[in-house]
Amino acid sequence: MRHPALKLAEVIDADTLRDKLTALTHERDGDGSDPAIRMQVLAILKAELTAGRKRIETMLLEDRSGTACTRRLSHQMDEIIRLIHDFAIAHVYRGANLSRGEKMAIVATGGYGRDALAPGSDVDLLFLLPHKQTARIEQIVEYILYILWDLGLKVGHATRNINECIRLAKSDVTIATAMLEARFIWGERPLFDTLEQRFVDDVEKAGGRDFTTAKMAERDSRHERHDNSRYKVEPNIKDGKGGLRDLQTLYWIGKFVYRVDHSRQLVGKGVFTQREYNQFQRCDDFLWAVRCHLHFVAGKAEDRLGFDFQPEIAERLDYQSKPGLSGVERFMKHYFLVAKQVGDLTRIFCAALELEQAKTAPGLAAGLVRPFTRRRKAVKGYPDFVIENGRLNVADADVFERDNLNLIRLFWLGDREELEYHPDALSLVTRSLKLVDRDLRRNPDGNEMFMAILTSRRDPEIQLRRMNETGLLGRLIQDFRKVVAMMQFNMYHHFTVDEHLLRCIANLAEIEKGHLADEHPYATDFCKDLSDTQRRILYVALLLHDIAKGRPEDHSIAGARVAKRLCPHMGLTKSETATVAWLVREHLTMSMVAQSRDLNDRKTIEDFADTVQSVDRLKLLLILTVCDIRGVGPGVWNAWKGQLIRQLHTETELLLTGGFSGASRATRIEAARQGLKESLAEWPQDDREAYVELHYPAYLLAVDHEAQLRHADFIRNATRSGEQLALDYRTLAFEGMTEITVLAFDHPRLLSIIAAACAASGANIVDAQIFTTTDGRALDTIRIAREFDADEDELRRARAIGRTIAAVLKGEAHIPQLKKRSKGRRKVRAFSIQPEVSVDNSLSNEFSVIAVEGLDRTGLLSDLTHALSDLNLDIASAHITTFGERVVDTFYVTDLTGAQIESPARQKRIVERLCGILDPDADERAAA
């Protein structure tokens, strides 16, 4: 791999700087201890540090080499430290010559010692002494450190002699790691050379195995802290899985075990091929480039590659948009491919390491290497495979060359025998991907084995994940290869597309086993009755539902076409293929209808039933929808969404089976009314009758029985006390929300006022239910995103918001007086969404349905509902849905006479007004 010229002479001119510093002391007869001189020294060095870093940033933009950038930053820091040291010796603490026992070496450790300094990295220094510290040495060290601190640098430091260094390195793996990368900067070179030799003799030779075990355990713990996934869409490029620290761990272990001074020497040790080492270098260079750009852009040590930084870094690295993928999405796909390659290199390294360690010891702990006895047992009926120390391995290096079907058979056997894989086997798969051809993809036996893996009742996700990590899954299904490492630049999806698909399959397997019955009772019950055919359909649909992401057209439609092409080769019949294609095309429909449409409007159910057409399809779509939403990321699924989906399923099933009619609906309303009466048995008869008659049918059908009982006590207490305005609060830990219920006299601007008060309090509304009672009161329930972990803290916050709502409704405060807060919404600025507004009279027989889509922000619901009131529209129901930074709100409205909005001119005014709210800067851009 070719590297750009370092151009270190252009980074810093140390001789000129040294002359400048020396010149400062001439007027003081060489005395640099004057505070005024110190301030001038600091000013010169600070100006040079700033200018030098600007030059280094410019070089990075020109050659895009991350490792070259870190070398330049390290060189600049080396020269500055040398200048400070020499100035202190010559001009600050001059006079007496330092004795031999006072001469020290300044040593770079950690990443700085590796010549890998990022713009915001700590500068780790070891002041190495021959014996004990003296007063003069302490003064010099303090001078150097205080100058560095005053320059705004973060400095990690230690002052030790050689014996102390060796003793601590033996007992502390972190110190051993730092010293492993120690590099001489300035001072007594023989002192440093002695330390290096002592470290090799006393630490490396004696503790290689313990060090390896500790570093691999440390790596596993670090991965656990970062969700054990390399495919998070806001990755930590330093400590996350597949990040820089993983490559550094390989380097550290390589130095210990193989006694190498540079990673390139691992090729000669048989650990990597030259091609694999080149890949190691490319990964390292790319990750360092990203990290350096991130530090420069953030202006600090920032290692989380957040949405708000990704577009600018993509632009700096010159990633251009193409149809279906923006520049930032192409950049992040490259990032995740690199993270995957880091995983490949780790697996190859571990295979070689196991063999190396096995030569001299029984093995390592922490799961890295199992006890080595080389026990090999043939797999009965499959001579190309063996079970070695409890792991599935290949019998020899030619098994895939002899029969490329063995590439699939390996994972089929792994699933059947429930075995983990030997690193040698997985490495050989990666090195044999060229053997995957059209014949293998169309091989009936191969596809039968693949379907057995995909629909396994054991753990299909782990097998598919191993296939994906080796690259085999993408070679077998070429359309899948296109979404490997692909991210979607939004705040809704937490993982790359391929990771999402695998997690969806894991969700289905967990639901089938009954492990998620408490969260998903409907889906769990349905899975109990699935036929083998329905299981095949579901697993294939989940694998393919997002396979067309990143294409210019709608991924659901394109994905259905892909399914029609692939399914026959996977052994599915025409009927099964048609159902899979339908599920892929409609995989978002149930979620969108449930969350953004009025489920108490018969037209909603009729339209959805027309799409579904059969009870079997409805059941499959519900299961797929649950798995899909859960696979988006932690916390995306909640009980509120579950209730909406169950209600949509129940209403649609009744219609499809002939049970949804005026009579049956009336029957269910009456049953709900009677059930509520029976649960209020302790109330007086007249009170029960009067209370139940307060609610319209929509309330009785939409609100679950438990909530109805809560509302009953709430409304009864408010009525008895004569309160015209009452509020109730409830925290919902599982849903990650807090519920505020408002009882007040109804008027057209009520929801707008409540939303504005929430916005003024910094609360983000994620859903709302609006009901009117027969006596003219409104029962509005809003749910806001939770902010505190502890319920007591969250309730205090909710009550504070409630006081704001009450003050506005009582006229004690006005919205213009309330300052809107937008806590936590900084990242949204990184996104741009074209506003869309539509007014549709075909979605309901009674209401005009206004659908709004755009970039979310605090206060948006308040502004939208306020505008609807200004337009003389009465909001019958509102459905608030957020997908990360994107909001999809639906309002069922009428004019003030209760009629739909028929006038095209009036519809146009509504669209223009709401678009202006969604994009408040549109007028400024048009004027510009």
Automatic annotation (TrEMBL):
Task: Please give the Pfam families that the UniProt record associates with this protein.
Answer: ACT_ACR9_3rd, GlnD_UR_UTase, HD, NTP_transf_2
What is the regulatory mechanism acting on its activity?
Answer: Uridylyltransferase (UTase) activity is inhibited by glutamine, while glutamine activates uridylyl-removing (UR) activity.
Q: Which GO terms describe its molecular function?
A: [protein-PII] uridylyltransferase activity; phosphoric diester hydrolase activity
What are the ACT domain coordinates in residue numbering? Answer: 739-816, 849-925
What cofactors does the UniProt entry give for this protein?
Mg(2+)
InterPro entries of this UniProt entry? ACT-like_dom_sf, ACT_dom, HD/PDEase_dom, HD_domain, NT_sf, PII_UdlTrfase/GS_AdlTrfase, Polymerase_NTP_transf_dom, UTase/UR
Q: Which residues cross the membrane?
A: none
Q: Which UniProt keywords apply?
A: Hydrolase, Magnesium, Multifunctional enzyme, Nucleotidyltransferase, Repeat, Transferase
Q: Which reaction does it catalyse?
A: [protein-PII]-L-tyrosine + UTP = [protein-PII]-uridylyl-L-tyrosine + diphosphate; [protein-PII]-uridylyl-L-tyrosine + H2O = [protein-PII]-L-tyrosine + UMP + H(+)
Signal peptide residue numbers: none
Return the EC number: 2.7.7.59, 3.1.4.-
Give the matching Gene3D superfamilies: 3.30.70.260, Beta Polymerase, domain 2 (3.30.460.10), cca-adding enzyme, domain 2 (1.10.3090.10)
Is Membrane included in the keywords of this UniProt record?
no
**Any one biological process term the GO annotation gives:** regulation of nitrogen utilization
Q: Which residues lie within the region annotated Uridylyltransferase? A: 1-378
Question: Residues in domain HD?
Answer: 497-615
Q: What's this chain's function? A: Modifies, by uridylylation and deuridylylation, the PII regulatory proteins (GlnB and homologs), in response to the nitrogen status of the cell that GlnD senses through the glutamine level. Under low glutamine levels, catalyzes the conversion of the PII proteins and UTP to PII-UMP and PPi, while under higher glutamine levels, GlnD hydrolyzes PII-UMP to PII and UMP (deuridylylation). Thus, controls uridylylation state and activity of the PII proteins, and plays an important role in the regulation of nitrogen metabolism.
Written domain comment of the UniProt record: Has four distinct domains: an N-terminal nucleotidyltransferase (NT) domain responsible for UTase activity, a central HD domain that encodes UR activity, and two C-terminal ACT domains that seem to have a role in glutamine sensing.
User: What family does this chain come from, according to its entry?
Assistant: Belongs to the GlnD family.
Q: What is this protein called?
A: Bifunctional uridylyltransferase/uridylyl-removing enzyme
